[in-house]
């Protein structure tokens, strides 16, 4: 079996795995659509999304060779692998939408919500795609003590600087809440980023914030 056929087999197995995936004995709910290629309408291939789907599969394909010959994945590896497959599926859904197919929409950001992110880079990315949303960056933690979780060896002088910065950011958020009167406050979180988790926990404590996973957004 050549590499291409081997890759196809792995991808088919991965897609099948998504529908039977269990986490700690709890089945992961999936939504299945009764659709057929025969339902396709005339349309145009979304080349960008098609290429992005292929890039995701190429990344996933690496597991085939790293985990040969048995292809057994531990929980962490399984999450990373399935993350790539789901990412590919999202791109393919967008390709199929051009031909009349409808799928469950991704999380949409709302104009009546105040979003909090931990980095200015993500803030710029969000505003460039959705200039109408209300989003603020903490550019770090929301409480000086939280930085010790990330940098246990931080000195007192640096800690004082972070403390002042945290107060400025919290005042900014409070002013935005008073001015905008948002429907809710939501932190956009990368589940693999400890800093994001700390920002969310503090925002939940201070503002009753909820969270959404950055992986659920089309960025």
SSE inventory with pairings:
Layout lengths: L2 H18 L1 E2 L2 E2 L19 H20 L8 H23 L15 E5 L2 H10 L4 E4 L9 H4 L5 H25 L3 E6 L4 H14 L2 E4 L6
Parallel strand pairs: 3-4, 3-5, 5-6
Antiparallel strand pairs: 1-2
Plain-language structure description:
The longest helix is centred in the last third of the chain and has 25 residues, at 156-180. The strands form two sheets. Strands 4-3-5-6 form a four-stranded parallel beta sheet, sandwiched between helices. It has helices at 3-20, 47-66, 75-97, 120-129, 147-150, 156-180, 194-207, and strands spanning 22-23, 26-27, 113-117, 134-137, 184-189, 210-213. The chain has two domains: 3-97, no CATH class; 113-216, 3-Layer(aba) Sandwich (Rossmann fold), CATH 3.40.50. The relative contact order is 0.10. It is α/β, with parallel strands linked by helices and 219 residues long. The radius of gyration is 21 Å and the shape is flat. The protein contains seven helices and six strands; from the N terminus they run αββααβαβααβαβ. It comes from Methanofervidicoccus abyssi.
């Amino acid at each position: 079996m050549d590499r291409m056929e081997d890759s196809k087999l792995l991808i088919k197995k991965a897609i099948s795995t998504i529908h039977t995936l269990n986490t700690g004995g709890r089945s992961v709910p999936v939504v299945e659509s009764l659709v057929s290629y025969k339902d396709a309408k005339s349309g145009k291939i979304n080349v960008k999304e098609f290429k992005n789907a292929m890039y995701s599969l190429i990344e996933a394909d690496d597991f085939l060779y790293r985990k040969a010959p048995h292809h057994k994945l531990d929980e962490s590896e399984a999450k990373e692998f399935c993350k790539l497959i789901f990412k590919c599926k999202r791109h393919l859904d967008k390709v199929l939408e051009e031909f009349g197919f409808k799928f469950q929409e991704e999380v949409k950001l709302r104009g009546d919500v105040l979003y909090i992110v931990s980095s200015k880079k993500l803030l710029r990315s969000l505003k460039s795609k959705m200039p109408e949303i209300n989003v603020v960056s903490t550019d770090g933690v929301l409480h000086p003590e939280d930085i010790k979780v990330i940098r246990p060896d931080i000195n007192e002088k640096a800690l004082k600087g972070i403390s002042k910065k945290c107060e400025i950011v919290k005042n900014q958020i409070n002013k935005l809440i008073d001015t905008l009167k948002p429907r809710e406050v939501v932190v956009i979180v990368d589940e693999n980023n400890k800093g994001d988790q700390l920002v969310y926990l503090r925002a939940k404590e201070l503002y009753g914030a909820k969270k959404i996973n950055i992986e659920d957004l089309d960025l």
